[in-house]
Amino acid sequence: MRNKFIGFDTSNYTTSVGMLTGAMSYINQKKLLPVVNGDKGLRQSDAVFLHVKALPDLMQGLDISSPTAIGVSTRPRSIDGSYMPCFLPGILAAKTMASASGVSLYEFSHQQGHIAAALLSSGKEDLLHKPFFAYHLSGGTMELLKVNSIESIEIISKTLDITAGQLIDRVGVSLGLSFPCGAELEKIALTGEYTNKIKVSKKGNDICLSGYENIADKMIKEGADKHTAACFVQKAVFENIKAVVKDAVIIYGNMPFVFVGGVMSNSFLKDSVKDLCDAYFAEPSLSSDNAVGIAYLTKLRYEGKI
């Protein structure tokens, strides 16, 4: 029997089931949760309900018989008090499958899964046992992390208000785009131009992004071209990433940077940060929320490698 490791991740906007085999090939099954047109997100109760509906269909697309071990993300971060109800459907599915199959169940955080997926798909698995930076940029998170090991992660910079993903989505909805707005906003920004200097608002190592939402909303109300507004948002996000990356190198020294999270599916941001640091990225399908990273961590835990 070949090794078969299955991972579950039920984040705020995506239901995911992933499978990794002993040959390191993977299957990435996921479904984006629907958001009503014009809304800027989902309530947790709605996300839980939608996960429960989506999981059976996703699992039918996998050969889940005779798993070697099961893994699941149980919380956003690996810190005390980290909790979101949306992870409960994944926990229920994983525990049920592990119990029925008589195999071990391993628990991880959503953030650990993101980091693992990026290391796996970028070919940087060697960093699992070396210190590196991970910049997690998504709809719910904007944190620069110092990863001493997958079990020892320090937050060294964070947003004090909204995240890059929230900035992109909120301005995108104001521009009439569909939530989540990242891909559409990137597309229209390609033909936009914004040349004014963008000031970064920092408090110590942390940043604030809500001011850019106010500026973009003012631009839109005053009739600015949507391409210009989208370009401004992209450049504002990059300027903040650049400021945080530069400070981290000064304070902690030059280490590899692994960029994770759906925001880093943006080609402009990826191309721009390559000039800043020794940068690595997940492949696009594993940059956004997925359970392949959880399946990979499950394999490593089962084999005693973490």
What can you tell me about this protein's structure?
This protein is α/β, with parallel strands linked by helices and 306 residues long. The chain folds into two domains: 4-125 and 287-302, ATPase, nucleotide binding domain (Nucleotidyltransferase, domain 5, 2-Layer Sandwich); 129-282, Nucleotidyltransferase, domain 5. The chain is built from ten helices and twelve strands. Strands 3-2-1-4-5 form a five-stranded mixed beta sheet, sandwiched between helices. A five-stranded mixed beta sheet has the order 8-7-6-11-12, sandwiched between helices. The longest helix has 27 residues, at 226-252. The chain is globular, with a radius of gyration of 19 Å.
Given the C-alpha coordinates, what overall shape results? globular
The topology string of helices and strands comes to EEEHEHEHEEEHHEEHHEHEHH
Characterize the quaternary organization of these chains. single chain
Strand order in the sheet with the most strands: 3-2-1-4-5
Summed up, the domain count is 2
Average pLDDT: 96
Distance between the termini: 24 Å
| Cα-based radius of gyration, to the nearest Å | 19 Å
What characterizes the major β-sheet?
A: 5 strands, mixed
CATH structural fold name of the largest domain = Nucleotidyltransferase, domain 5
